[in-house]
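Margin note: ligand = flavin-adenine dinucleotide.
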Amino acid sequence: MTTIAVIGAGPAGLMAAETLAQAGLNVQVFDAKPSAGRKFLMAGRGGLNITHSEASDLFISRYRERQAEMALIVKSFDAQALRDWVHGLGVESFVGSSGRVFPQEMKAAPLLRAWLHRLRQQGVQFFMRHRWLGWDEADPTLSDTTGQTKDTTQQLSFVTPQGKKLVQADAVILALGGGSWAALGSDGAWWPWLKEKEIELAPLMPSNGGFEAHWSQHFVEQYAGEPIKTASFKVAGTAPIRGECMVTQHGLEGGVIYALSAILRGQILQRGKAIVTIDLLPDHDIQKVFDELSRARGSKSMSSHLRTRLGLHGVKAGLLREATAADIFKDPVKLAKAIKALPIELPACRPIDEAISTAGGVKFEGLTAGLMIKKLPGIFVAGEMLDWEAPTGGYLLNGCMATGRAAASGLIKWLSHSRR
Ligand SMILES: Cc1cc2nc3c(=O)[nH]c(=O)nc-3n(C[C@H](O)[C@H](O)[C@H](O)COP(=O)(O)OP(=O)(O)OC[C@H]3O[C@@H](n4cnc5c(N)ncnc54)[C@H](O)[C@@H]3O)c2cc1C
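Resulting structure:
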């Protein structure tokens, strides 16, 4: 019987396993961790955002530089198909006010439980605590009965609690995730192993992560953990985005910062720093801000004047003081300009392990349309380990599951051709 090894039991690997099992193949899923879908469960902690309800073209544009490669794949398992699939597992979904789609209870656990149950019923076998170490090419125990060494690309080497184990499969799907939140399984250890095989790879980098800023001790003590709400954020060359983000001990993260993370990261790589310009009062034009600042304030302090005339207080007022020289508070023109366009320098990305997702990975240029590695026939790749990125909003999980299905479909096609 034809046996397929799926390595990685995250959403991409599980979706690949389901597609393969439905085609009648013998599917074995291997994962380094004791249980499946750990990052998927973590994604459910803050409300599992499985996809987005926006128009298809806008949805596809979220995959940025890789939208051409992701378009067909995501269109063949789009937001509606994903919602239907969720409903098929007995879980209802709803569209939130932002257009994001969530399972009814917002959690990942009920969905994962039902999914794993269905996969087992479909005959999928799970081998947990099996850490894949790459290919074991020289092992003589893998000679077949004629004494010939079998196809080296399929000899998978695992370390298990019982020791080393070699597995032979007719084809393989690698769905090992990116390189963030290593404690949940996706540690990016696969990157050098594929590099050694001269597979085309882009370096793994943080995506949807935070950035460092030069905060003073005083600012951190007063405002770390505070949200900057309803401001407008702009990076050179892009339209301003209204929203919010969080001041952290190290810099800024969350919301709008995640949405801008690819552009900010690009600026840091190019110029050694990124600048995000914050409009602290997006509901007032600069003239209104100037007029209010110019009103007589009598014996009132400037802090009190900013609060009463413009509603500027708390973390926003703190940020204004943090990022400007003290003397601009004496000049209403300069102060109005700073309030409407406060530049914050971001010298570095926070470490990759803290990021929601990662950019980089296996490049599409080295893959067939069915997501098979051209240099390694029979080895397919799915999920976040592929070289694409997208903002938060459900595009990540939709992309992972769609590529899982696409890799499995590619594998099924490849098997039928290679047997002719
Ligand atoms: C806090 C947080 C919140 C998130 N929220 C959302 C959200 O709301 N919506 C959204 O769309 N996305 C969200 N994401 C992102 C989403 O969870 C990931 O993009 C998705 O899980 C990636 O799926 P994957 O199957 O490609 O990889 P993973 O889910 O990372 O799975 C990879 C699997 O491979 C296994 N593995 C790795 N290396 C080996 C090895 N050598 N041998 C054996 N097994 C190995 C790992 O143990 C793991 O089980 C969130 C992520 C985080 C961290």
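Confidence is low (pLDDT under 50) at residues 139-150.
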